[in-house]
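A.,

Following up on our hallway conversation. Structure tokens first:
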């Protein structure tokens, strides 16, 4: 409740600041129009405010379909993740059982499913973000992808190896293993 209240208070403060800025612009443009030697400046201020407002409204209206798609995608992803958690928790608690699906697989499969749902939602939402088509945004994306590819090769190999070990049931809880001369 406190976070929601602070969010709403912050939103109201931003709206207040915007209204004050509009009032100041309108005041300055109308004040300067009264004097002949500043009439051009006043008209320029008013024209700038008017054209900027119209452009902002047009851009907001043009962005509404993308915004709706983002909202629907994130809502669907949120409920899909909630369903996955409930489903795999039911398997983990043995409320639900699937043939040839071990109970120990519930947690890693839940994490994989949540990761895939999140990645799919991000792939849908990413191109719809404002500015995602700009060269700077693309450059940053390529740089981040290169960092993950080059720097994360061994991490991805370990991740895939861990998944293979989990799902092939190579080791069970309580098994005795020896790794690099250490037995446990």
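Then the amino acids I'd put at each of the 184 positions:
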């Amino acid at each position: 409740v406190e976070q929601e209240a602070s969010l709403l208070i912050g939103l109201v403060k931003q709206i207040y600041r915007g209204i004050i800025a509009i009032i100041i612009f309108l005041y300055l443009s109308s004040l300067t129009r009264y004097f002949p030697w500043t009439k051009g400046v006043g008209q320029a201020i008013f024209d700038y405010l008017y054209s900027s407002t119209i452009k902002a409204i047009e851009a907001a209206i043009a962005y509404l379909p993308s915004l709706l798609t983002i909202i629907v995608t994130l809502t669907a992803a949120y409920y899909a993740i909630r369903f996955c958690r409930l489903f795999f928790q039911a398997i983990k608690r043995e409320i639900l059982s699937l043939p040839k699906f071990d109970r120990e697989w519930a947690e890693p499969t839940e994490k994989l499913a949540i990761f895939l749902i999140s990645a799919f939602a991000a792939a849908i939402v990413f191109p719809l973000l404002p500015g995602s088509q700009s060269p700077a945004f693309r450059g940053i994306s390529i740089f981040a992808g290169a960092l993950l590819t080059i720097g994360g090769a061994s991490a991805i190999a370990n991740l895939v190896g861990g998944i293979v070990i989990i799902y092939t049931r190579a080791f069970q809880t309580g098994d005795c293993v020896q790794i690099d001369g250490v037995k446990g």
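DSSP finds five helices and two strands in the chain. Curious whether your intuition agrees with the design.

B.
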